[in-house]
Amino acid sequence: MSYRLGVDVGGTFTDVLLVDEETGSTWRAKTASTPSDQSVGVLHGIDKVCAEAGVDRSAVAHVLHGTTVATNAILEGKGATVGLVTTQGFRQVLQIARSFVPGGLAGWIIWPKPEPLAALDNTVEVHERIGSDGTVIAALDEEAARAQLRKLRDNGVEALAISLINAFANDVHERRLRELAREELPGVEISLSSVVLPEMREYERALTTVANGYVQPQVARYAGNLRTKLASEGVRAELSILRSDGGLSAAEAAIAAPVTMLLSGPAGGVTGAVWVAEQSGHTELLTFDMGGTSTDVALVQGAQARIGRETKVGDLTVRASAVDVRTVGAGGGSIAHVPPLTRALRVGPQSAGAEPGPAAYGKGGDQPTVTDANVVLGYLPTALAGGEITLDREAARAAVQTIADAMGLAGVEQAAAGIIDIVNENMLGGLRLVSVQQGFDPREFALVAFGGAGPLHANALGRLTGAWPVIVPPSPGVLCALGDATTSARDESARTVLRKLGDLSADEFAAIFRDLSESARARLAAQGVAAEQITYSADIRFVGQGNELPVTFDLSEGPGGLAARFDAEHERLFSFTLPVDHELVNARATVTGAKPTVTPLHLEKGDGDPVRAGTTPIYVDGGFVDAALYDRLKLRAGDVIHGPAIVTEMDSTTLVLPGHTATTDPSGSLLIRPTEVEA
Question: pTM score, two decimals?
Answer without folding.
Answer: 0.79
